[in-house]
Specification:
Layout lengths: L1 H10 L9 H21 L6 H20 L4 H38 L2 H4 L2 H12 L3 H10 L3 H11 L5 H54 L6 H51 L10
Helix pairs in contact: 1-2, 2-3, 4-9, 4-10, 6-7, 7-8, 8-9, 8-10, 9-10
Amino acid sequence: MQSAAIAVVGENGWQVPQAGASFLRGLRATLSRAAMALALLLPATAAVGPVLAPSVAVAQDDLADEDGGQAEGESMLVFYYNALGLRYVIIFLLLSFALVALLVMCFLQVRREALMPKALREGFEAHLDAKEFQQAYDLAKADDSYLGHVLAAGMSKIQSGHAVAAEAMQESEDEEAMKLEHKISYVSLIGALAPMFGLLGTVDGMVGAFMVIAKSATAPKPSELAIGISQALITTLIGLWLAIPAIACFALFKNWLQKLNGEVAEESERLMSRFQSVGVKK
């Protein structure tokens, strides 16, 4: 507000001492920088924007004249925020946080050691070698891993024969694989949603630019059209930034899961192979 008043006084022809001209320019630049920081820290207060806009514009002109241009980091931050708008900032932040959380979860869970713990394999085999079948079953049932569920399902049906136990293990493998596929599918969902929101921002921005042209009695200034066009481009850009790593990570997780499914099946069959004679009629 103060810087805007100084600018108006100058435009009305008030005499400003030559010695104080540099001081006034520095004061206007300082106030304008503070206004820009306040606008970033409090984006929800949209009503402050029109009031601060004149001082920001004056500061930009002064900084361009005195320093030869604005600081690149500050100008790009303000540009991206103004181009996106509060709605798309919130949307892309939520998508970003969700994507990071899902990637961390998948990296922790889709691992060989997580799906096939070494302690479970060695302990289960040791119990079988010692003919401690109940202890082997209890160990597998108490373990919450992929292999633990498969072995527990097989041991629970082993009295009915090896064929029935193998069928139970196959059903358990399918169920566990489906659970993991559902988890990694959310990464693919974000990879599909991010460019769609970017496309929505593109259409929204272009509609806003054409509305400026439609409502203007004369040819609009390029700066007036730049707001809608920048929103159209920046939303698409950020949507692609989110979608590309999401789709790439989903493909990697899917390949890893298929490989681990085969390893779990082979390990469970190896451990349960000693029961092949159970239920066989002679």
